[in-house]
Amino acid sequence: ISVRDYHPMELIHIAAALFSALLHASWNAAVKGSTRPTDAMTGQMVVAAVVMLPVLMWTGMPAMESWKWILISTLVNMYTVKALLRAYELAGFGVVYPTGRAVSVMMVVPLSTWIAGDRIVWPMLVGIGLIVMALVLVAVSSQRDKNFSPQAIGWTLLAGGGIAMYVMADARGVRVSGSALGYCALVSISNGVAMAWRQRHRGSPWSTVKSTASVSLPAGIASALSYLLILWVWSQAPIAPSAALRDTSAVFAILISVVWLKEKFDRWRLAAVLLSAAAVPIMRLG
Fold first, then answer.
1. Residues 99-110: tens digit of each pLDDT
2. What is residue 8's DSSP assignment?
């Protein structure tokens, strides 16, 4: 599959990716800020699965060619969630989240060319570079947190690698699925079932949802919508710049971490916001 088979990034693709980023940052912050992050993560995945079940009944199953990518995405996502939750236990949301997303972007750029055959033109590459710089600035600012230990860094890097892997699996899968909505529904259900089974020792999925409802219900809906939006973008536009735009979620997370989680805001994070803002019109040239 080549980028020539898809439309270049239009304004609607950019807007959808950015809204997906905002939703993604919001539900991740809600999970991190909860008193029981692991249960909240499980609950939101179960909620997303339940929300998407009637959607799958309406759309029908995605094309069989996408099923192997769904399996890969689900398995990698379970590994990534474990790494992410472990990193959240060891360090602040403001450093784990942007560092993981930066690692993901840097991996997705070469992978999208190698695996998906996307051709990245220079404005897209410049925009991606600015976003990576923004994420690095956020991470550097937060590294002054004494809790960002070598162990926390290790789990964060593992999470970033996992994010890149499931991004590529989902981007490939949705392009052959025949329906972004159907693909989203089936992956959401498979993720919810897998997570519920994995956390079965903590109680039934329904009791987990009930006990974390104030977080898991809105987070589950937000995560499903965020996922659907970026899948739709990947089905029509090049993967790397779309993924980079979605990873501006780390920049949205700056404001969330400052306002909600009471983490620090400084000139480095301000520079990150400005770099990300500059990247959007540059990428539009591509």
1. 787 788 778 877
2. -
